[in-house]
Write a structure and sequence with these properties.
Length: 457
C-alpha cells in the first residue's frame, strides 16, 4: 500500500496531565487536590503508589520540552493543576504556581510548539471538596469559571487553544459511582449531579475564556467516547448497548453539542436525574470551536439485570488482542470519529488522546523496543486518515502520552509513554515508538502496510 499523507496543517501532538507528571506536590505553595488525598488513603491505588514525584515534570519541564522538539511535535496538551495556582480552589492566588505555567508556555513557544492547556483534568482542590462537596455542589462550577478567568488573564497573551475539562464521564462515574478514582465516592445521586455541574462549568468557562482572552481563542472540551457493540444480536443486548451509550457517550456529547439531555437517559435516571434549571442547557451548549475526543477502545455490551441503573455490563472478546487495560480495536476510532461527526457536526475534531499500556522495559543496549505501541499507533493513525478521506475535519492527533506517568488507580504499573521514564532516577529514554512517531511527523504520513518491526514511518 502506498504512503498515506495528512493535511499540511495537521496538528501532531502528545498529551499529559498535571497530577500524572508534575510531582512537586508540596512545593512552592501548591495546595492539595483530591488526588493527593485519594492516593494517600491506604488501599486506594495499586501498591500504595502516589503522585508526589510522578515524572518530576515540575523540575524537568525544560528537558521534556526539549524531547518534544526532538520528536518534532508541533503541539502539546497538558493540564493546569488548579490547586497549584489557587491552593484553596478560590481566593488567594499562588503566584509561584502561575509562574510555572508561564515558564512552560514560554518554553513551548520558543520551540514552535502550540500549547493546548486543559484547565481541569480531575484534580479538584481538596479544599473545595471539603468545604462544599466538590463537583456535587453547583457553586464549584462558578469557582471553576473564576479559575478559567485567572488562567486566561495570565496566559491568554500567548495561549490561544483552551480545553475546559478532560473526560467528565470518568470523573463522574469512576470518581463518584464506582469509587475507583478520587474522591472515592459511591453515591448514584451525587454521580449525576457531578456530571451536570461539570457540563455547566464547561459552558461558564467557555464564556469567560472568550470574554477575557487578549486574542481570539479557540475553545473546546475533551470527551471520551467508546462505540458500543451489543454482544449478540438479541434485542436485550442491543438495548443494553444503547443504554450504556446513553450514560457513557450521549449524556455528555448532547448537552454540549445539541443543547439537550438525551430523553432516554433522563427516563432511565428517573429520580437520579438532576433538575435542569432554566438557562442551564443554553449555558452548557455555549458555542465551541472544536471537540476533543479521546479514544482507547470499543465496549462490547450484554444485558445484565444485576448492574444498577443501566442493567448492562461489558464483556471481553475471546481471541481478540488486548493491552494491559483494554481490547485493541483500531476500527473503533474510525467509528468514533464518524459517529461524532454525523450525530453532532462539531466545527472541528481533535483526537486529544489515544494510546496503549504495554509492559515496556529497557533492553540490554538501553533501547526500548515497544513494537506493539508502534503497531497500535500505525493502525489508529490509519483510521484517522480514513476519516479524513471521508471529508471529516479532523485537525490533529495527540498521542497519550508523552512520557510514562502515574496512571491513576493503577499507579506506575501502566506505561503509556512515547518516552520511557525510570521512576527511580527520572532518566528519560525515547522509545522506538517515539522515534517512529517522529518520522511520521517529519513525513506527515506513514506506510500503513509496514510491519511492526524496523518501521520506516
Ligand atoms: O491516563 C489517562 C488520562 O488521564 C485520561 N484518559 C485515559 C488515560 C489512560 O487511562
Amino acid at each position: 500500500m502506498a504512503m498515506i499523507r495528512f493535511p499540511d496543517d495537521f496538528v501532531w501532538g502528545a498529551a499529559s496531565s498535571a497530577y500524572q507528571i508534575e510531582g512537586a506536590c508540596e512545593e512552592d505553595g501548591r495546595g492539595p487536590s483530591i488526588w493527593d488525598t485519594f492516593c494517600h488513603t491506604p488501599g486506594r491505588v495499586y501498591q500504595g503508589h502516589v503522585g508526589d514525584k510522578a515524572a518530576d515534570h515540575y523540575h524537568r519541564y525544560a528537558g521534556d520540552v526539549g524531547i518534544m522538539a526532538e520528536l518534532g511535535l508541533n503541539a502539546y496538551r497538558f493540564s493546569i493543576a488548579w490547586s497549584r495556582v489557587l491552593p484553596a480552589g478560590k481566593g488567594k492566588i499562588n503566584t509561584k504556581g502561575l509562574d510555572f505555567y508561564d515558564r512552560l508556555v514560554d518554553a513551548l513557544m520558543e520551540q514552535g510548539i502550540t500549547p493546548f492547556p486543559t484547565l481541569h483534568h480531575w484534580d479538584l482542590p481538596q479544599a473545595l471538596q471539603d468545604e462544599g462537596g466538590g463537583w456535587a455542589n453547583r457553586e464549584t462550577a462558578y469557582h471553576f469559571a473564576e479559575f478559567a478567568r485567572l488562567m486566561v488573564e495570565r496566559l491568554g497573551d500567548r495561549v490561544t487553544r483552551w480545553i475546559t475539562h478532560n473526560e467528565p464521564f470518568v470523573l463522574s462515574v469512576l470518581g463518584h459511582f464506582m469509587g475507583e478514582h478520587a474522591p472515592g465516592i459511591t453515591d448514584p445521586l451525587v454521580t449525576f449531579q457531578v456530571g451536570y455541574h461539570l457540563l455547566l462549568s464547561h459552558g461558564l468557562a467557555v464564556d469567560v475564556l472568550r470574554t477575557c482572552s487578549r486574542q481570539p481563542p479557540k475553545v473546546g472540551i475533551t470527551l471520551d467516547y467508546s462505540p458500543m457493540h451489543p454482544a449478540t444480536e438479541t434485542d436485550e443486548d442491543t438495548q443494553a448497548a444503547r443504554r450504556l451509550d446513553g450514560i457513557r457517550n450521549r449524556m455528555f456529547f448532547e448537552p454540549i453539542l445539541l443543547g439537550e439531555y438525551p430523553e432516554d437517559v433522563r427516563e432511565m435516571l428517573g429520580p437520579l436525574m438532576p433538575e435542569i434549571k432554566d438557562g442551564d442547557l443554553r449555558q452548557m451548549s455555549a458555542s465551541i470551536d472544536f471537540i476533543g475526543v479521546n479514544y482507547y477502545t470499543r465496549t462490547v455490551v450484554r444485558h445484565d439485570p444485576g448492574f444498577p441503573i443501566i442493567a448492562a455490563s461489558p464483556v471481553e472478546q475471546e481471541g481478540n488482542e488486548y493491552s494491559m487495560m483494554w481490547e485493541i480495536y483500531p476500527e473503533g476510532l474510525y467509528e468514533t470519529i464518524t459517529r461524532v461527526w454525523h450525530d453532532y457536526r462539531p466545527p472541528l475534531i481533535y483526537i486529544t488522546e489515544n494510546g496503549i499500556p504495554v509492559p515496556d522495559d529497557v533492553d540490554h543496549d538501553g533501547q526500548v523496543r515497544d513494537y506493539r505501541r508502534i503497531r497500535y499507533l500505525r493502525d489508529h493513525l490509519f483510521q484517522v486518515h480514513r476519516a479524513l478521506e471521508m471529508g471529516i475535519p479532523v485537525k490533529g492527533y495527540f498521542h497519550w502520552s508523552l512520557t510514562d506517568n502515574f496512571e491513576w488507580a493503577f499507579g506506575y504499573r501502566m506505561r503509556f509513554g512515547l518516552v520511557f521514564v525510570d521512576f527511580d532516577t527520572q532518566e528519560r529514554t525515547i522509545k522506538e515508538s517515539g522515534r517512529w512517531f517522529a518520522r511520521v511527523i517529519e513525513n506527515n504520513g506513514l506506510d500503513p502496510a509496514s510491519s511492526g518491526m524496523h518501521l520506516t514511518g
